[in-house]
Specification:
This protein is an all-alpha fold. It is built from 16 helices and no strands. It has one domain: Na+/H+ antiporter like fold (Up-down Bundle). It is globular and about 70 Å long.
């Protein structure tokens, strides 16, 4: 166990350093993610404590809060056609693709529909079990998409960064900060997930710290302090959480369906990239902002990549947050509706024959 941790840390440092030298944004996320995948595939077990995962998500929540204005709700109401169309288009594309794959019977039962849901990976995986789907394949599809979105978004950011979009990577690891504000920020990042767990708010590990940090910034002038060294810890934990999910038993179980899963995931990411062109045309924003805003899921990883680039972080995170909440509340019902509709069509076809 101890050696596995050393291998994970060393692999994360080497891979993260290599990605940083290549100029990829969010190298501190992608390096640990790759190291986690390598160890998981080799059958090595490294358990990330639940409290550590919650703290990392709390840090990302504070990171998002630092760029969100108090007028966020007002902005959403004012620009509801843009956010509504953006969120709806990604959900419709993902569900339509899932329905098409369901008709082609590329995977058994309703698995493909639950796996294509664009966000709320943990919730969709848990709820899919009650619908009779293959939970292991749903989990693989969800986390493969999160990994694919992170990698694709980072590559796109690197490409567009050639035109000045990338934020400098040579920022000091531990700059001079206000100790009181840093302590308050860390308390929010640690306390928010703990409180969310006590409340039974499964998705609150990121959302609750974000809401508290936004309110305190405007109520008492809290300055969210997140030195690069602190963020690196959060980025690494998020990367490990994604990478270590790709265990050998899971991949063996899904080996036969893996080409289909990879193809469906890649197609969804590509289609959302096409939607980004529409968002750019409508809003006049830059292409990187539009691409990150329309990326299908992976709220924490998209936040990390967006924070590493000069983009409209408010637009990106508002679109991601609104879709996250929408999928959380309507995603399960939509998935069940698509599966029910397919069953009805199948029964009608059998009667006609």
């Amino acid at each position: 166990m101890r050696n596995d941790w050393l291998l994970l840390l060393a692999g994360s440092a080497v891979a993260g350093g290599a990605f940083a030298l290549a100029g990829l944004p969010a190298a501190l996320l992608l390096g640990p993610m790759l190291a986690g995948i390598v160890l998981a595939v080799q059958g090595r077990r490294v358990e990330i404590p639940e409290a550590a995962t919650g703290f990392a998500q709390g840090l990302i929540g504070c990171l998002i809060a630092r760029s969100l204005p108090m007028s966020l709700a007002h902005d959403v109401v004012q620009r509801w056609p843009v956010f509504g169309a953006g969120v709806l288009s990604v959900i419709v594309v993902s569900m339509a693709l899932g329905a098409a794959m369901l008709r082609l019977k590329v995977l058994p039962g309703s698995t493909i529909v639950w796996g294509m849901s664009p966000g709320g990976a943990a919730a969709m995986t848990l709820l899919s079990a009650h619908a009779g789907a293959d939970v292991q394949i749903v989990a693989l599809m969800q986390y493969l998409r999160v990994m694919g979105v992170a990698a694709a978004a980072s590559i796109v950011a690197r490409t567009l960064g050639a035109h000045g979009a990338a934020v400098a990577q040579d920022a000091p690891w531990f700059p001079a900060v206000d100790a009181a504000h840093l302590a308050a920020t860390l308390a929010i990042a640690a306390g928010g997930p703990w409180l969310a767990k006590r409340m039974g708010f499964r998705s609150g590990a990121l959302l609750l710290p974000m809401i508290v940090a936004v309110l305190l910034q405007h109520a008492i002038g809290l300055q969210v302090e997140l030195p690069r060294g602190v963020l690196a810890v959060g980025y690494a934990i998020v990367g490990w959480r994604i990478g270590l999910g790709f265990t050998r038993p899971l991949l063996v179980h899904a080996a036969r369906a893996l080409p289909v899963i990879v193809g469906c995931t890649s197609l969804l990411i590509a289609l959302c990239g096409g939607l980004a062109l529409g968002l750019q045309a409508v809003t006049g924003t830059d292409l990187l902002t539009a691409y990150l805003a329309m990326s299908p899921g992976g709220l924490d990883s998209v936040a990390i990549i967006a924070a590493s680039n000069r983009v409209d972080l408010t637009l990106v995170m508002t679109m991601q947050l609104v879709r996250f909440v929408a999928v959380l509340f309507v995603g399960p019902a939509l998935a069940r509706w698509v599966v029910g509709l397919d069953s009805a069509v199948e029964e009608r076809s059998q009667r006609d024959e």
